Amino acid sequence: MTDCPHCTDERAAGAAFCESCGRPLATGAPLDVGTDCGACGSAGSVATDGYCDNCGMLAGRPRDHAEADAGPVAAAVTDRGVRHRRNEDAMWLAVRGTEVDVVVCDGVSSSADPEVASGTAAEAAGKALALETGVAAAVRAAAEAVAALAGTGDPRRAASNPACTIVAARVREGEIEYGWVGDSRAYWVPIGAERAEQLTEDDSWATHVIAMGADPQAAWNNPQAHAITAWLGADFGVVEPRTGTLRPEAPGVLVLCSDGLWNYYTEPAAFAEVVLASVRENADLVSAARALVALAVEAGGADNITVALIPIV
Amino acid sequence: MAYTAEAFQNEFLALGATEVNAIVTVTSSGAEGGRRTGASEIIIVDCSGSMQAEGRMPAARQAAKAAVGCIDDGVHFAIVAGVSTAQQLYPAPGELAVSTPETRAQAIGAIDRLQASGGTAIGAWLKLAHQLLAQRPGDIKHAILLTDGENGEYKGYLESVLQEIGGSFTCDCRGVGTNWTVPELRKVANALLGTVDIVARPEDLTASFTQMMTAAMGKTSGDVQLRIWTPVNARVRFVKQVEPQVTDLTGKRVEDGPRTGRYPLGAWGAESRDYHVCVDVPAGVAGDEMLAARVSVVEGETVLTQSLVRAVWTEDSALSTRINRQVAHYTGQAELAEAIQAGIEARKSGDDRTATVKFGRAAQLAHESGNRATEELLATVVEIEDAATGTVRLRRKVDAADEMALDTRSTKTVRVGRAQ
Ligand SMILES: [Zn+2]
Ligand SMILES: [Zn+2]
Q1: A58 and B289: CB-CB below 8 Å?
Q2: pLDDT, tens digit, for every residue of B334-347?
Q3: How far, in Å, CA of B409 to CA of B407, rounded?
Q4: Which residues on B lie below 8 Å from A52 (Cβ)?
Q5: Chain A: closest CA distance from residue B371 (Å)
Q6: Residue A299: exposed, middle, or buried by beta-carbon count in 10 A (0-12, 13-18, 19+)?
Q7: From the candidates A45, A85, A304, which should be mutated to test the interface with B, based on the most B CB atoms within 10 A?
Q8: Strands A89-96 and A75-79
Q9: Average pLDDT in chain B
Q10: Taking a C-beta distance cutoff of 8 angstroms, is the pair B218, B262 a contact?
């Protein structure tokens, strides 16, 4: 077993990822200084700040695409997509035997340093999940960590504080406990089912007005459909995460994802079909997650895309 | 010595756009443990015959004495008497004195001997100052130049001297009275990275000299430079200091390795200055992110701090049309200085129509940006009827000193949001 290149903490037996920093061991590592430039072809021209010393083009950020592969237990993939210039989603995945801690966060683009918010939230929640104090406590820990960002670093953060969504889950002995703030989602997709079960309920304008009786079609077509009504960030105040538990009776796949994926599959039937097809048609779990991300990219990649797959047998 | 540099910009560009603008704020906390290197000072006092008028000579003597009194112990210094040639008044010709209470007292005694007789030879005076300062490589080098008239040397001589010695020391220039010319002293100050100002009344010379010498004694680094890297096929369109005053540094570029140039910033103490960097880059495609410039503050080979200027191309016009306040503000401040100088030139050549337009624009810009000091100076030359629309009328009778004050101080800027 190799040591995590990102931190020196010891990992529990059976963990596929560094439990401390949550980064995958194999991929998503920072670009090596001195690699060749993909834009102009200059040899060894990538400088320490990630830009080519000849043509100035950004060689790429480690977060642009990252994968976490826990073999058959879990997998997660995050990607910048097409339209966004950086990946403001963040994820955390830690496994211990069949126990899984997983977090997906999506930075609010209009806030200052959204990628810092999501990264901070994912890490804080991930570390809190390992303390076995439950999902609500983990989301609150993330909320505190994100709120604290407003008072640090760039003064612009105080004016427009970093903010993000969160969905987190822990799997213990076949039971799923989940919690969320915002519109990143958790789904339960039973094997062979025709419809996916959306476990979370978006904190979004559309969900809110549909609950009030508005026509769903019209609500989702409204320009402010995706405006979120709850988030992690200093300007939101005290966060009361919503939580739930599920003890599946039949095998299926727990999916956590950002809106960069579910936006292309808003129908529960379409979501179930694409998830089950990906799991079925790919040799392993991480390839299935990668395939789902690729579909969202092909569909336009209008947002950052993050998806985590945790099969439960 | 703690330096910081921060770039303010809208990094988003529309597809096809190639111009990248950023304001880089450089701040130094000053030395923690006092001056690291030595310092040397030259005081040049115009002793031409015209200095006899209006009690200028006694006032200049008093001011020079006050400046000598401000020189810290251990600083090397000399006094130059400016006549048709340059004459060293103190210490012995070709030497620099080391400042002690005794040498300062001797210098003050020597200043009492200054008499007004002779011509104005600014080129020769600066050349002597340069020769004296050249004995102290590594020192923070500074000179004060006082004159009351136009240069009397043959045409082109001053320019050739500035060409030769430009950047080798900092020179703050002051014109007393109204018989000197602003463009001439501005040329000297620009070449030597110093300031220029009018001291209309001789009795204000002492305060002016004290202020210059105190500021000089507060400098902790002698030769700070901006080092700018740009990518292949890119070009630095301009580099301007924009705060506390506008100075174009573009022409002072010295090549420094591949795609890199250095621009001299002069001496630094505990202070903050803003620079406007404008770079033309090759156009990128949607989603491309390019480093348009890597801006470093350096002293010799030591990089004190660094800041990145970026370009990101986007189809989202909401992003690319976003106006950066700092860039917009300082673009306006630079235009303000240009409008004033163009207005003064037009008025001198009798083109009242152009002068009115230029001063009108200047009044508008000064008002919008909250530059109250410049707005007040403008009001001495034109009647500002409506600053918001730039409606002004030329004043029939303008005091020469007021117009020269407006001219010399036209480059003084304010920071965003200040005085608003
Ligand atoms: Zn390149
Ligand atoms: Zn998203």
Answers
A1: yes
A2: 999 999 999 999 99
A3: 6
A4: 231, 291
A5: 25
A6: middle
A7: A85
A8: unpaired
A9: 91
A10: no
Assess A160–B contact: CB distance below 8 Å, yes or no.
no
The Å distance, Cα A40 to ligand 1 centre, comes to 4
Residues of A in contact with B281 (CB under 8 A): 56
Please give the C-alpha separations between residue B403 and each of A305, B51, B172, B340, in angstroms, as whole numbers.
63, 21, 20, 10
CA atoms of B239 and B223, how far apart (whole Å):
17
Using CA atoms, how far residue B358 sits from A248, B333, B363, in Å, is 78, 14, 9
- Would the pLDDT of B351 be above 50? yes
CA A313 to ligand 1 centroid distance, Å: 48
Nearest to A312 by CA among A230, A243, A248, A222: A248
Question: What's the confidence (pLDDT) of residue B32?
Answer: 45
Q: Which residues surround ligand 2, an ion (CB under 5 A)?
A: A 106, 258-260, 303
Residue A231 CA: distances (Å) to CA of A121, A227, A303, A305, B63: 11, 11, 18, 18, 65
Residue type, B33: G
CA of A303 to the centre of ligand 2 (A): 5
Q: Cα distance from A110 to chain B (closest Cα, Å)?
A: 11
Specify whether the CB–CB gap between A290 and A298 falls below 8 A.
no
* Residues above pLDDT 70, as percent of chain A: 88
**SS3 labels along chain B:** CCEEEEEECCCEEECCCCEEEEEEEEEECCCCCCCCCCEEEEEEEECCHHHHHHHHHHHHHHHHHHHHHCCCCCCEEEEEEECCCEEEEECCCCCCEECCHHHHHHHHHHHCCCCCCCCCCHHHHHHHHHHHHCCCCCCEEEEEEEECCCCCCCCCHHHHHHHHHCCCCEEEEEEECCCCCHHHHHHHHHHCCCCEEEECCHHHHHHHHHHHHHHHHCCCEEEEEEEEECCCCCEEEEEEEEECECEECHHHCEECCCCEEEEEEEEECCEEEEEEEEEECCCCCCCCEEEEEEEEEEECCEEEEEEEEEEEEECCHHHHCCCCHHHHHHHHHHHHHHHHHHHHHHHHCCCHHHHHHHHHHHHHHHHHHCCHHHHHHHCCCEEEEECCCCEEEECCCCCHHHHHHHHHHCCECCCCCCCC
Q: Rounded to the nearest 10 degrees, how much is the dihedral formed by the CA atoms of B71, B73, B75, B81? A: 40
Among chain B residues, CA nearest to A45: B231
Q: What is the ipTM of this complex?
A: 0.78
Q: What is the pTM of this model?
A: 0.70
